[in-house]
Amino acid sequence: MIDLFVQPEWSDALKNVLHALANQEPRPLIPAIGFFYNGRITEPELVDFIKNAPSHNNALIALRLALAEWDGSDKLNILDSDGVQTYPGTEQRRRAVIAALGLSTNAGDVINSCVPIHREGTVVISTDFEPWYDEARTKRGSMYWDDYKNYLHEVKNWPTDSITDLERSANKIVERLADPTRPEIKQTKGLVVGYVQSGKTANFTGVIAKAIDAGYRLVVVMTGTIEILRAQTQRRIDMELMGVENVLAGQDPKDPDVAKGLDYQNDEDWINDRFVRHTERALNQPGVARIRRVTTHGSDYKSLPQGMSQLRYERHDRTKPLNAEENLFHTDAYVVVVKKNQAPLKKLIKDLKPLRNMLDELPALVIDDESDLASVNTKDPKKSTARTTINNLITEILEIVPRAQYVGYTATPFANVFIDPDDVRDLFPSNFVLSLPRPKDYMGVQEFHDIEPDWEARKKTVATSNELAYVRSLQGDPDSDQARRTSELARALDAWVLSGAIKKFREAHPEVGQPREYRHHTMLVHEHTSNATHSEAADLVESLWGKGKFTSSAGLARLKALFDSDFHPVMLARKDGAVPGTFDDLKPYVAAAYAEMTSAGTVPVLVVNSDKSIQDQQEALDFDAGKVWRVLVGGTKLSRGFTVEGLTISYFRRKAGQADTLMQAGRWFGFRDGYRDLVRLYIRRDETVDLYEAFEALLLDEEAFRDELAKYEGLDEEGKPIVEPWQIPPLVSQHLPWLRPTARNKMFNAVIAARASVGSFHQLSSIPPRSAKGENQSNLVNVIIPLLAKTTSAVDLPYVADGVRSVQPAKIGLISAEEFLSYFDRHTWHPDYASVIEPLRKFIASAMGKKRIVDWAIIWPQRKTDAGRRLWISELGLEAPVFKRARRSAPRIDFTGENKRNILAAEPIPEGLPVPVLGQSKTRGVVVISLVADIANDNENVDIGRSDVVGLMSLRVPDESVRNKRDLIQYTVVAADQANEIVVDGRRS
User: Fold this and answer.
1) 125-274+341-435 has which CATH code?
2) Would you state the pLDDT for residue 478?
3) pLDDT of the residue at 211
4) Do 351 and 391 contact (CB within 8 A), yes or no?
5) Domain positions in the chain
6) pLDDT for the residue numbered 547
């Protein structure tokens, strides 16, 4: 039992050994422990420790970190028992590590069960770069990174896998920046793509730590456009990177005058010693830079003397440039956290200009958070050489500081990859685009939406359906139906009170590994961006709060009904903490939650907007100063980049005009440790506006973008990148044809000439619009039905989904490659889909000529039962199943995706594995065809005719049709006079 665990005397020795070994090849572990311990231990003792040590034990943490390094390193020479080099993230590598540690297979099994193999999740599309960082990080020290990593482990309780992912992605970013000591000036530009509220700040904090350790001496962090986000970012960097010593800057905090001017004198984390400490001894080591804060938690950048007058870079050796090692590692680093607003950026530029000669030698790092907001130049270069204001200011900073390295961070990357790559002054990520792995325990689109559900095989319940568990529909226009709006908002408010009571219950009944305190508990009301609407909504919430009488018999009766019908079933199905047996068990905690909510007044409502008159009359929203149990009403300030801590109930009616704006408003995505089962999203869903579906489409596009990048990362057989950043725009435009960049000036002269679908299905769902009945019926008669006629055998195709084995009934058949291509050429597609079809067709024809595609399997999925809609097809002589698939709303030109089970069941064919009836072949592709109803507001109970049915194809070429990575995708160049404008989402940028 963990509760009875006794720390062995040699555990510190184990920790020290693992720290020492982690960055080199593994060596026999037990003798090394004995040497450090000056005693003898046995393998059974080590195994017993690994089995029983609590997860937060420092030696066990060191083991996880060391194994993660060995698992994932592509630099170490870790050989298997036959002397063959092993590959990162493989079982072969882990077996070789266990053997190199001198441990038995039994010990290895225990280790593997406690510390699973860590597999890389970061994806990088990059140009070639000069390697320098591997040597630099060992030679130049790593104090700031080491202290940050320890802080994440010991204070924030991050899991080892998350820290490992962060370290690896930070390494991949820093190694692509210029070596700060290189004699020649080199500026790089990159983009990091994360998820909404998913830890991007933690990533760039790690990058800053590593950059300062490596020699960067000026860091400019540009946050969004609002002060609360800038202040939130400043505090994170102060607390987790700069640390107590650099915040105090040599001042005595006990001095009353000093204490009065401190940023964090009333901050609970400062008071409770939760800011990182480096120790004066470590900061006084040779080569370690002190960090000077140029901005503070309460103040954006100000002009001299408060600002850059502090900037003093002394040359230790005046005969050498500032960035020579002899000088660079005797200087301090300066960090500026600034909003992307005109005033502070202009002040920064004004103060930098007089230092220009020195800045030519200064290694600098510019982090652009929310880099698709304000940073991108949206002016048409054909009409004007002027740039948008913020874009012009950022590019001016990069000109003033020529050694500055620019790294943008965003969750919505399309605006960034569609910047003109030929405009060298602009911010196109010309050196790298890095996609961060999806964090562990993150609640994103996959947790709020039912992605490709198989409801024929599974019953839809709160246990199986994310929509049923977390999403509650709002109906109608609030302006025209005030009574409904009031009723729905009152129910959401009840949910906030009830979930707060459950948190109080969980505080009193903590489970192992769960929070013992819920510091913040918030509800978001987001209906509009106008201040007037916020005031009206806040008034309504205040009125409902006053009428709620939550601790009265009537209020408790409402909460009981909501507990029984909604929260209790979901908690039982998706438990994330202690669950009250009945509402009576919870009832005493309602009053405790109510008291927390009203601790600063009678009504727990905060309006968060730019209206100064409102802000002056209420408490400030400050998650850092203490507990926040409040209902937050606002718009823009509660969207872009700002983390709403403790968010449990979201009431969302806003309809944003732009896709990225809508996506960034999704504050309900994030980490919800200890209350995932309590999260509720109240969102408008009706025939006029379905915001839930809009979010799903947008976020799936972002997921697809990451998946697309993953296919083409890495190097070909000649060591050259398969795809470079400047080739991403046509890749995106082909993958998402509704997002149509063509060209602006010389932009997108690169177009895709040929592209394979190896390893994944190409879902060809962009057929002519519904209005083009004749073309769609011609496709049905001349292509789809003749192909379905080739499926002469009925089979059950096995597949595995979410670890469950099942079968998919289908009709299957074969067709020669030549005959399939003739049908393929007869098919008519949406006019904007040519850029997808033509490269795919070229690859297929080329592979046929090389005899790498000989035939195709046609898979026609059938229903598992006799139920469901069917239509008589006379040419086939049978009633065919007709499935429900939705056309995407304009400007989309496609349908929703093929059912996941149909894809999984067909995958063995192109992989060259045996399948029933067909056997196996390395030269066989597969086509999955489904008949679907193409009608508005489709309901499977609605009668349909033949003219309402279309056929949709999903295709995958045989894996063996690609013999080298360069065959995956091939680009060509069009003439400059063919270039047009960029068109995104139907709007010209």
Assistant:
1) 3.40.50
2) 67
3) 98
4) no
5) 2-114, 125-274+341-435, 456-691, 757-961
6) 93
